[in-house]
């Protein structure tokens, strides 16, 4: 059972061929970072135009690498939201054209659901699928930060979410303040390895009580800005490393401790992470360590499936295919689609 999947929700153009929901036969990703870098963030208009240029070659590359042709595909899956509307339109139009011409089902996939299903792709497949549910997923990306109770395929309850900035957004903003460039997450991750995480006592942004699973990252972002201002001169490289390490430690601990608390409160035995920020080396290590200490199972997605990619969309689409959860050719891209 082969699914061709397409992902164009933000600034990565990707297509993948996924077999039986777990085996990734190809997953080329064309990143547009170099075109957005000089603006310090993603320019939606540029992203949409680049997707138009890249979509056909990337689909062909995915088919070639999997050693198949359009005729071998059983269904075509595509991210239809949430994301940048101009970017989403490109992928959805391409998928519709393929579904129509090949007379195969079209499967619209929620991008957030795709991130969760990155955990089920084969290179990480540690648990039999029957034992997988329920699990909690800390979904951390450039636009979202949430704790999701995954009760079964396509069955989600959002336990908490950020009230202001997403975790990835905070990484990107702190990187900008430190003059590191874009995207900030990987750059902070790298720099933090050389810094002292205990050098600056940034406060953990905890929300207690009824909203204990909610997050807030605007405060720590401001704390970093204020700290940089207080230095009253250009930040030197040692200071940058210490700021990166101290900021990252507080964010990672806050994310993971809330995930663990939710698992214990809900009596759920398996926790997982997903989304671009789950590529963070400290988050991956700390989530595994805390899960081990609490005798919980931890699912950490393979590094290459954390940031935006089409394989995760193909993974999620497989279970929709099995439920015959197909989309009509009138499928509309939705910028603010919720889980
Ligand atoms: O999931 P993703 O690729 O796109 C969205 O759906 O938003 O996530 C992108 C976010 C960016 O904010 C980026 O800085 C962050 O993920 N990110 C990281 C790392 N790699 C990517 N954040 C922290 N550490 C990383 N290693
Ligand atoms: Zn994403």
TrEMBL record:
Q: How is the cofactor bound?
A: Binds 1 Fe(2+) ion per subunit.
Does the keyword section mention Cytoplasm? Answer: yes
Reactions catalysed, semicolon-separated, are: L-threonylcarbamoyladenylate + adenosine(37) in tRNA = N(6)-L-threonylcarbamoyladenosine(37) in tRNA + AMP + H(+)
| GO cellular component terms given for this protein | cytoplasm
Q: Which positions are annotated as binding Fe cation?
A: 111, 115, 308
In terms of SUPFAM superfamilies, this protein maps to: Actin-like ATPase domain
Question: Do the record's keywords include Cytoplasm?
Answer: yes
**Location(s), subcellular:** Cytoplasm
Task: Specify one Pfam family.
Answer: TsaD
What does the function comment of this entry state?
Required for the formation of a threonylcarbamoyl group on adenosine at position 37 (t(6)A37) in tRNAs that read codons beginning with adenine. Is involved in the transfer of the threonylcarbamoyl moiety of threonylcarbamoyl-AMP (TC-AMP) to the N6 group of A37, together with TsaE and TsaB. TsaD likely plays a direct catalytic role in this reaction.
So what family is this one in?
Answer: Belongs to the KAE1 / TsaD family.
* Name of this protein: tRNA N6-adenosine threonylcarbamoyltransferase
What is the species listed in this Swiss-Prot or TrEMBL entry? candidate division WOR-1 bacterium RIFOXYB2_FULL_37_13
